[in-house]
Amino acid sequence: MTTNARPWGADAARIAVFAALIIALGLVIVPLPGGVPITGQTLGVMLAGLILGPRLAPLAVLAVLALAAAGLPVLAGGRGGLGVFVGPSAGYLLGWLAGVVVIGLILGTRRITWWRAGVAAVVGGIGVVYLFGIPVQALVTGVPLAPTALSSLVFLPGDLIKAVAATVLCVALQRAYPRAFARTALRVA
Predict the structure, then answer these.
(1) Reduced to 3 states, what is the DSSP secondary structure of residue 27?
(2) Helical residues (DSSP H) of 1-128, grouped into ranges
(3) How large a percentage of the chain has pLDDT more than 90?
(4) Nearest CA to 100 among 2, 28, 21?
(5) How far apart are CA 88 and CA 105, in angstroms?
(6) 32 vs 174, which has greater pLDDT?
(7) With bands split at pLDDT 50, 70 and 90, how would you rate the model's confidence at 184?
(8) Fewer CB within 10 Å of terminal CB in the chain, N or C?
(9) DSSP string, 116-184
(10) How many whole angstroms separate alpha carbon 24 and alpha carbon 4?
(11) What is the rounded distance in angstroms from the CA atom of residue 75 to the CA atom of residue 87?
(12) Stretch 51-64: mean pLDDT, rounded?
């Protein structure tokens, strides 16, 4: 047990806050002319990875997914239930878990810079999520991989905007409240 580790209760509270943030941002839906709306939920996922790091962020995502599995309407568009885990978006939900780990690992424990936060949000929050999501979507819908990947590009501009927003928020929070980024070992006491 290290002396600089936060008590488990503090980490549990941070996990709960970010799970709630991910859920709340799912309520933010921006309709686009092409009929494909942009939701804020992946912004919450990116922020969780950037702020909580690779150990705690997956727990926040798992909390959201557990609530969805229990049938609560916590996903974008008020979706929930076990059906979301066998539908076209199932791979993206799985990608959230891997994505927050990659985001946290890229950002690391060193001083946070805008470029490292931006790379982490793009690689983990977009690249990794798409890497899981597109193949599963293709499998579930029966559409070949290439057309599925091509059709998913419609979400890329919105996701890039969310990555920029996550980067700006992360760097601003680091300057305003650096304790939020204390990356200590997860301990149960």
Answers:
(1) coil
(2) 8-25, 41-69, 90-107, 114-122
(3) 74
(4) 21
(5) 28
(6) 174
(7) very low
(8) N
(9) HHHHHHHIIIIIIHHHHHHHHHHHHHT--HHHHHHHHGGGHHHHHHHHHHHHHHHHHHHHH-GGGG---
(10) 31
(11) 13
(12) 96
DSSP state, residue 187? -
Cα-to-chain-centroid distance, residue 131:
14
CATH number 1.10.1760.20 given to 14-181: yes
pLDDT at 98: 98
Helix axis angle, 129-141 to 145-152, nearest 10°: 130
Q: Are the beta carbons of 60 and 103 closer than 8 angstroms? A: no
Could you tell me the two tokens for 127? Answer: 């690249």
Closest C-alpha to 45, from 110, 119, 102: 102
Structural domain boundaries in the chain: 14-181
